[in-house]
Design a protein that fits this description.
homodimer, Rossmann fold, eight-stranded mixed β-sheet, alpha/beta, Rna Polymerase Sigma Factor, Chain: A, 14 strands
């Protein structure tokens, strides 16, 4: 395997933010997928914050959610944008860059630097489209394992993530228990309920109903922007809560012209339109299909019992759910923790009061910081359960 | 006004069902809309079950929900289909046809016999499309008032309905309090929350994103079937509950071929596809836009306080909510009842335990029958609060 590392970014010592960050990329000569197919080469984009210590035992892997990317913190040198979890990562923050070495990679199948359906096929040089293999959560984690190994890290201090990121955390627990001392699954589930599958399916149908989708072969023509925008709008409703929408919008009307009888009247409609339209500028419709399907297929227990899947694990676990998260309801996190307990693990469950819905794991900085900082200190001090 | 009544159906005396039913139609020479526009003529389709007594004081009006129609009970002579609330209407049922005269009309703006955007313009003979005036819940009720008046009924024993039907019930309470002795709003709200508006808006966007929608002018060409199917699929998720989906589908896979990577794998997906595809055979996309918008705009209190809108009303009120209905959460029914109490009304609130979600008002026959039968007996015996 040939590994190519681009120069790592420097943290700015006098500020809490990691400052300007630069995307790096590892090139894997080949990667076998769970489906039996394999691709070569495979690019995995990632960023790091803080410094890996000499013992290489201070590394934390952050796994992003469905539409996230490797740019978790700081200001992107390329785009000028702030990372999606910047409030949690930096000097003195929950993931303290003075103490820990933070890694965040874009998932396999994504469209933000890692190889996915919009990437060019190495021979034809045309985007894979639907020729891209079905991606699973396990495939995403296998790609992350390769990055971690190639940074010379034998064991992660902790792996953390919310939503789809939480599924990756569970997959690390199940498939690579010897490589992690701590695990923080946030606002997630060990397997999707039919309601969660149903929301994803209508989002996919919105995309595939757009004639520009063209069976996934749209890269040389107009993009399926309207379908992808509708998918994103549906998603956005499920990420908020009845309460947070009421607080944010109420029944206020928008200002401005209404070119048609069914234009957006209410502020909440204008907000959804804005979010939908912005999304199509930054996300690939086929990636949306592949990643939502990976989530729907995922079952941490592989059809068996979850506590049996966790047997023999040594990592300490902190699971966090949020009271108003109706997309990933608290009972799903409770099931994870019950299975951990049944498997004899050191597992803690916290249910955070929040009106922010599923988005809470991105927004409730202060409450999560208290919980996570303390948990990381425990893991850092004591290691996994075998230490 | 010229009124044309088609022959009323006969009830079959030896069975609990109303038996074979026939749609009737009243033709209003003109109808003024709340928007200021007016149409002429306007057709309103309706069915009746049971017999109007000599005093004409045993009439109950049933208001249907978004995608319902006038065929509430019995077997349609024309289609052979059973009415959407058949389990609640008939001899010995909640709405006992041996005792009450039941009326159910298709809403103005609908597509099941009443004038709506798919109806032909009387001059051009082309469907109205988006030239149809904006319809409000008040407009729907005004059309119902005309039917009731033309049946020679001065006061209804009761008006009842769930969801959008419940909004019509509230509008009867606010606008025509002198014409009703009882009111049963089921699984409804006095005004939509931003979350409810948001779901409707993405459903509308799914329709309007279909290029066949063609700004509502699709009646001579291909229909916006894919968009309407996606809208219906979204709706269906919101009508069920996490629990009812888990009970009905779990994570079971469908059998059969999968022509593409993103075909329906899970039973819940197959179910949604089936429901979406069936819906486009029976419903008009423009009616879907108009009716959802009527619901979103509706505010029983007209921007003021709900108890003030109810002041002076004499009808007795029974409001029913369902524990697993997350689309029209119980707090919205509680707000209605609180406002009734503040206005000095005789109002009862019942929260029915059910796993059926919003669909509970269509499915929980037994529990609703107990509550409604008793309520109707009270109203029948005592009349409104002034009796």
């Amino acid at each position: 395997m040939r590994i190519e590392l681009m120069p790592q970014n420097e943290t700015s010592p006098d500020k809490s933010t990691p400052g300007e960050t630069e995307m790096q990329c590892v090139i894997l000569e080949s990667l076998a997928f769970e489906s039996g197919e394999s691709l070569s080469p495979v690019f995995i984009a990632y960023e790091t914050y803080g410094r890996l210590n000499a013992k290489k035992d201070n590394a934390i892997l952050i796994c992003h959610a469905l539409t996230g990317d490797a740019h978790a913190a700081g200001i992107s040198k390329k785009t000028g944008k702030i990372g999606w979890w910047d409030s949690m990562i930096g000097l003195g923050r929950a993931f303290d860059t003075d103490r820990y070495f933070i890694i965040c990679s874009n998932v396999l199948g994504g469209c933000k630097g890692s190889t996915g359906p919009s990437s060019p096929h190495p021979v034809t040089e045309r985007p894979y489209g639907l020729d891209f293999p079905i991606v699973t959560i396990r495939d995403m984690v296998n790609a992350q394992v390769r990055i971690v190994e190639n940074l010379g890290i034998e064991r992660l201090l902790c792996v953390v993530g919310g939503s789809m990121g939480g599924m990756q955390v569970l997959e690390w627990m199940v498939s690579h228990p010897e490589m992690i001392n701590g695990a923080i699954p946030l606002a997630t589930t060990a397997k999707h309920s039919p309601q969660q599958i149903a929301f994803h399916e209508v989002e996919r149908q919105a995309i595939m109903s757009d004639p520009h989708w063209n069976s996934g072969d749209y890269y040389c023509g107009p993009l399926p922007s309207r379908g992808l925008a509708v998918a994103r709008m549906i998603g956005h409703i499920t990420y908020m809560s009845d309460c947070s929408m009421a607080e944010k919008f109420g029944r206020k009307f928008t200002n401005g012209c209404r070119p048609c009888k069914f234009s957006a009247d209410f502020e909440v409609e204008g907000y959804l339109h804005y979010q939908g339209n912005r999304f199509v500028e930054r996300f690939d419709a086929n990636s949306y299909l592949y990643l939502t399907k990976a989530m729907d297929y995922y079952d941490a227990a592989r059809g068996g019992k979850l506590h049996e899947a966790f047997a023999g694990m040594r990592a300490r676990v902190l699971a966090i759910a949020f009271t108003s998260d109706w997309l990933y309801p608290a009972y799903q996190s409770q099931e994870i923790v019950s299975a951990c307990k049944l498997a004899g693990l050191d597992a803690t469950y916290c249910e955070v009061n929040s009106t922010c819905g599923h988005d809470a794991f991105l927004l409730e900085t202060e409450k999560q910081t208290h919980l996570i900082r303390h948990f990381l200190e425990t893991v850092d001090r004591n290691g996994g359960m075998d230490n």
